[in-house]
Amino acid sequence: MPSTSCPPLTMLNPQLPWSSIDTLLLDMDGTLLDLHFDNHFWLEYLPQHYAQHHNISLAMAKLELIPLFKEQQGTLNWYCLDYWTRELELPIVQIKREIAHLIALHPGVEDFLTLAQARGKRIILITNAHPESLSLKLERVALAQWFERLISSHQYGYPKEDQSFWQALQADISFDPQRTLFIDDSLPILRSARQFGIQHLLAVRQPDSQSLPKVTDEFAAVSCYEQLSQQLKI
Predict the structure, then answer these.
(1) Average pLDDT rounded to a whole number, residues 211-224
(2) Which CDD domains match (predicted)?
(3) N- to C-terminal Cα distance for the chain?
(4) Domains plus CATH for the chain?
(5) Which residue of 24, 91, 116, 232 is most buried, as measured by CB atoms within 10 A?
């Protein structure tokens, strides 16, 4: 990505103190991967299947699905493919595979991970994605090579929005929150991480390449990974 399209980090402390950061905790969907796949699936493609299954219009399908989605947001059920397969009586994983070609890394992610790894950072993926969703994405994008661990919150039984997730993560991998950088596209999750005591936090300015940038409020935000790669090269 050309540097002219990649402005400096904004808000709070834009220059990260990399010598004081040992561990990188990185979200997957919207953070490393373009959220367009997930947004298109949940907001457009799945409603089409639901409409066909129930022989109703797409507009009616969305009217029925949106309240169901909102009711579960922030809970583990929202991210659970087994839950939605039961609730909607549709083969969610199979339907996801039909549009798996949309799964893609954000520009610059590979260079950033390579540089972070070369500088000896401990890199761990923490995602609310269901294990089957994680597996599907790993089939399409070779992420595993950069990570010490790939952790789905379903392993702990709590989403990242819950303090119990962070307590379970700490017990599992033993990291120093004061020397950790966490990047996520969800503001509620970043607030949960801040409550737990993680020192360095970054939001993602544009999780979905097909949507407008987000207002990230109280968090510094990365617009493209070249910003972080340039810092790591210093």
Answers:
(1) 90
(2) HAD_like (cd01427)
(3) 19
(4) 3-34+104-233 (3.40.50.1000), 37-101 (no CATH)
(5) 24
Backbone angles phi, psi at 151, to 5 degrees: -115, 125
Of 73, 189, 69, nearest in space to 126 by CA: 189
Do residues 159 and 76 touch, judged by C-beta distance below 8 A?
Answer: yes
Residue 203 belongs to what H/E stretch? strand 200-204
Residue 150's DSSP bridge partners are: 125
Place of tokens 């950069």: 146
> For 74-102, how does the pLDDT look when each residue is reduced to its tens digit (9 = 90+)?
899 999 999 999 999 999 999 999 999 99
Structure tokens at 90: 């549709």
Which residues on neighbouring strands pair with residue 221, listed in sequence order?
10, 203
Please state whether 125 falls in left (phi above 0), alpha (psi between -120 and 50) or beta: beta
CB neighbour class for 209 (10 Å; exposed up to 12, middle 13-18, buried from 19): exposed
